[in-house]
Amino acid sequence: MEWMSIIGNSIQYIEDHITDNITADGIARAVNVSPFYFQKGFAMLCGYTVGEYIRNRRLTLAGNDLLVSQENIIDIALKYGYDSPDSFTKAFTRFHGTSPSTVRKNNVLLKSFAPLKLKFSLEGGYLMDYKIVRKEAFTVIGNSKVFPYERAKENIPQFWQEHFTSGKGSIVCGEFGINIDESMGQNSFEYLIADTYDSHKEIPEGFVTRTIPAFTWAVFPCKGPMPQALQKINEQIFTEWLPPAKDYEFAAGYCVEYYDDPKKYPNGTADENYYCEIWIPVKLK
User: How far apart are CA 61 and CA 83, in angstroms?
Assistant: First the structure.
């Protein structure tokens, strides 16, 4: 139940400091967990990134303040972390479907995003295959792009599509998809569409090389059409494998996706039997 306690404490911390300058890094320190794994775990278990959750709660409370108080709109904006009326109005309108000034003038319906509450239920019994493997350092060549954690689930499949549409797939086929966040921070990470690097070949313009350090990896097999099957396994790692794991914890800010050759399958990466893996670096607790 360690992760459940962490998430529960973090939600309470957010509610207690909702008008303060709170960040994922500060929340992680308050609940005594790495910011990198806190942010990934929160998103997987709650369905929202930390930033999305805080923003939705603040905009809900701001709407309530507009209805029941006489505070100026600019004061409410500042109270909930917006440094200008324009930025507040844009965010408020996207969330509620109406502007703050309209709320003050008319009787309109607002959206409410309630605080998350933990509910214990007997679940589990899932069969989740994995193996622990020691791998030496290896170097890859890849197409690199930096992504914010928010909306990465939608943006990375688009990056793969752009990679092949642009013709770069003829140079790097995509044996690996690699997530690198060495600082294990809270905002962004580097993602590479990559192949094993042949040091005898030149690095084409627009590509980079990265050396992945030697680690002990937890390797999770995945079968099914991409990207849905891979995203499901990634979610299960946090919701089904990590919470009861007694011996291992994550060791560093890396995640490797290994992809089998799509040409082996009748429908390529959309095939129901398409095979790939997720590698997570781990260490003994």
Answer: 17
